[in-house]
Amino acid sequence: MFKKLLFIFVLVFSCWEKTYATTLVKEKVICPVCNTLINTLVVGSTNNCAGCDMDLFERAAGDDPNLFYPITCPECAYSGFHSEFLSDTTLPDTLKQKIKAKKAFISTPPVEELDLHNIPAWAKYDFIAQKYQLTGRSPLLIAHIFHSASWAVRSEDEPLSGIDSNTINSVDSLINKKIIRKELIKANNPALYEIQLGRKLAKIDSTLKTEERTLSSLAAIKLLREHGENKEVEDILPSLENKIPTEQFENLKSKLNKSIANERYFQEQTVSFLKLGLPEARENEKTVINYLCGELYRRLKDWGQADSFFRVAESLIPKNGRDPNQSWLIKCIRGQKQLLPKNNLKN
Ligand SMILES: [Zn+2]
């Protein structure tokens, strides 16, 4: 699982300007629990042209393939990946009975009240992670599924939900105007370019008129939320009070807070399973897992834990004979450690 991640940052994203998209294929699968025939979409092909967020969320140009990997049965909520709906899929009888009785998975609202024909991808990942816990799968695998759930929240939720469409169009035009295509193409990682642009837009520019400043803050929220830089989103949000209509502000605030809390719930689950799985990880995976724990704690605003895990990750990189394939990881560890607020850390 982590082997693939080792190469993400050494890729040159030269495909940015070409037309790349995720292709989806219609398929029928049969639920191994209740035999329901399910019409679903599976990923035919995808790409990583949109770069990678700093918690290693690999991003595609076009549809996010992560939203189409999990499948949930609309009748009984059995959930899994495509390969877990094939005819040779076997499950313990006790688990089948629990799923049929709608007692296997915990969710809010309860499973029997959910519209299973229309549930978000993060809920499907949540059910898969719960199934893997019930069937005793490895903590690192469960961590990866919870991590995918957190990415799905980020990818599915509209960052400016609650804002009127004219303002959203103006925000999009501003972002397009600010993106310098030449720089974007040159950037090794388009996702990082967008995060840095979001940070620039978040800075108060006193030469701007109030309306332009409001658009700039909204554009910063959009870019930073799309990449899960949620603390910065929370920092910008109060400045919009009284700058946009009250009802829109309250709507935006409530939806963003709910979405960020949901993402953080899955990040907490991820980090707890990563820590549980660390002793069983291969030596060459330990650096990246410690980095991920540090990065997730940074996103959870636990600066002390983030600093400790970044330090361990750094200490695991051999002083001599460094693997050139890991140079991206050294950059990540040092770069993300720099973002921790200095006055909250021990020397
Ligand atoms: Zn079913």
Secondary-structure content class: mainly alpha
Number of contiguous helices: 13
Principal-axis shape equals globular
Portion in strands: 5-15%
Q: Indicate the radius of gyration in whole angstroms.
A: 21 Å
> Strand-and-helix sequence, N→C?
HEEEEEEHHHHHHHHHHHH
How many domains in all?
Answer: 3
Average pLDDT, all residues: 90
How are strands sequenced across the largest beta sheet?
1-2
Distance between the termini: 34 Å
Helix-strand layout with pairing:
Blueprint (H helix, E strand, L loop, with lengths): L1 H4 L17 E8 L6 E9 L5 E2 L5 E2 L11 E2 L6 E2 L12 H8 L20 H14 L4 H18 L8 H14 L2 H6 L3 H13 L7 H17 L3 H7 L9 H32 L5 H17 L3 H13 L11 H12 L9
Antiparallel strand pairs: 1-2, 3-4, 5-6
Helix pairs in contact: 3-4, 4-10, 5-8, 7-8, 8-9, 10-11, 11-12, 11-13, 12-13
The site of zinc ion (ZN) has 8 residues, from loops.
Walk me through the structure.
The protein is 50% helix and 7% strand. Helix 4 runs antiparallel to helix 10 and helix 11 packs antiparallel against helix 12. The strands form 3 sheets. The chain has a two-stranded antiparallel sheet. A two-stranded antiparallel sheet has the order 3-4. The structure holds zinc ion. The site of zinc ion has 8 residues, from loops.
